[in-house]
Amino acid sequence: MPNAHGGYFAPDSIVAKIHSDPALIVGGIRALMEQALHPGAMAGVAKYSDFRDDAWGRLRRTGEYVSLVTYGPVSEVDRAAERVRMIHHRLGLDSQEELLWVHTSMVDAFIDIARRSGMRMSTSDIDDYLSQMVLFAQLVGINRESVPDSLDRLESYMQEMQPKLMASEEAKRTAVFLTFPPMPTVVRIATPATALWASVATLAAASLPRWARDMYGWPSLPGQERFTDRSLIAFRKSALRLPEIARMSPYARAARKEEHEQLAGER
Fold this sequence. Notes:
The protein is built from 15 helices and no strands. By secondary structure, the protein is mainly alpha-helical. It has one domain (about 15-265).
């Protein structure tokens, strides 16, 4: 049901808080690397998707969808979710197992990056987030009963799924592609975008759980977790200094403005 603001999630909800945080860019790239470990999901993307031909477009549209569902009006969200379900059906990515993996690995990445980058979150906050994110799963056609809605259920699900996962050659190529995606020549030559993106993607890869890094065949160095956590904290602190227009989507900025206006009116 829509809330008082006309969307599915209130501007002060834990979902809105996490999804407006600049650390989410690291979480989003990590989520894609995690999702690629499911052979069925990866095969469908590799066979049918235009990800390689329109990498920036696909990444942008995915981010816009998450932002829209989080902050947008219900009518727009429902139309967008219907389009996503149609695309998944066309790509052959609409089995419950594959859809559930894509959703759950996404929230796993978002939560882990949020915590490790310095966002204050209690176990209760995480449970609230997962409970509210069930709606995200339902919108793309996942059965509600199967969606982990607490930290305990999330951890159990991730452990149960590991024997079904593997880093296929296509998954490894995708991870490399995510780290060094093609960019327009002028952007690659005249700006530091390539190096900046590679550093963020490398941080996302380093933040993967040990079992996922092992599947990819990436080394885990002594003290890596500690160094990665410090890097995530530094990245978030730096990103929070940027103006909102550079680190938040239009939907998130509109929701933030509405929340501030409401608080001002209550004073």
